[in-house]
Amino acid sequence: MKLATINQNNQEIAAIMVEDRLFPLPIVNENYSTDWNDTLDQILENNKLEELISWFNNEGKESLENTQKLGLPYSGVNFGPLYRHPHKIWGIGLNYRDHAKDLSEKTPSSIPASFMKSDTTIIGPNDTILIPKQSSKTTGEAELGVIIKERCKNVQRKNWLDVVAGFTTIIDMTAEDILRQNTRYLTLSKNFDTFFSFGPLLITPDEFTDIMKLSVATVINGEVYAKNTVSNMTFLPDFLVSFHSEIMTLLPGDIISTGTPRAVQLEDGDIIECQIDGFPPLKNSVKDLKSI
User: Is the domain covering 89-291 a CATH 3.90.850.10 domain?
Assistant: First the structure.
């Protein structure tokens, strides 16, 4: 199942994607006597995702395919971030060896180089990334995102998909020059406004044959800057879910951004993309606040 958040009538609402059309959940409720929450975060918080998937697989998909006129064309939709206020955003630093070389660092080998981000960093597809005045070198990083489905603690690796709502595309940013001054500045370097873009789709695990085979690419101005596969991560997604659930209780809507093949320096006017197999690209433009 593919879900998105779209901007409609100045509101951000959840929609189901079928083929190349988006069906807003309020429209679905109106036409099919359902009562789904209007937003993805509400669906997750109220533990309704499994019910929604079951309805979709048993009757909803066929019904929506037969009523295409109720849907909006993908190309004409204005997407928002999947939601704006997750409880936690975990980032994973240096999870690919090539990215560790970018920072002249060794790849962590015992435990992940985890950090946290504020929800005030969040933007959505086609929004503008702002290079802050305090930074002369800001980088962008394409990443696979894991979205947690339910409250969970001490999840075993073999059961990780039981607590995963789905996957998404992410572009994470770093004020690299600030980070290089002192590694204790990591939180500061990762938390400027607009430093976390995610969406446009949440795709549920049943849509994938093998997550480990997905390729993740950082693309700048239409050119692939770096590309790698999930299987080459130092810490695989199943481990990341299990590991972080042992540290903190994970909550519905929590995000784990699993690391980037490589980070590219951003310049005023750039277009950066996250391209992952099976997903539409996530694109954002770049504006340097020092140029204003």
Answer: yes
Q: How far apart are CA 158 and CA 150, in angstroms?
A: 16
Alpha carbon distance 129, 237 (integer Å): 27
Cα angle: 155, vertex 232, 122; to 5 degrees: 65
- Integer Cα distance of 272 and 142 in angstroms: 9
Predicted confidence (pLDDT) per residue in 242-269, tens digit: 999 999 999 999 999 999 999 999 999 9
| Mean pLDDT for the chain overall | 96
* Beta carbons within 10 angstroms of residue 212's beta carbon: 14
Neighbours of 65 (CB within 10 A): 12
Q: Phi and psi at residue 217, in whole multiples of 5°?
A: -130, 135
Q: What is the pLDDT of residue 124?
A: 99
Residue holding tokens 């997407």?
A: 79
Give the other-Cβ count within 10 Å of 94's Cβ.
21
pLDDT digits (tens, 9 = 90+) for 135-162: 999 999 999 999 999 999 999 999 999 9
- From 54, 21, 20, 11, select the one nearest 36 (Cα to Cα): 54
The residue-averaged pLDDT of 82-103 equals 86
Overall average pLDDT of the 53-79 stretch:
96
| The token pair that represents 157 in the structure block | 């690796």
The pTM score is 0.96
Burial class (CB in 10 A: 0-12, 13-18, 19+), 119: middle
DSSP labels, 216-270: EEEEETTEEEEEEEGGG-SS-HHHHHHHHHHHS-B-TT-EEE---S-EEE--TT-
Per domain, the residue ranges of the chain are 2-76, 89-291
The SS3 of residue 198 is strand
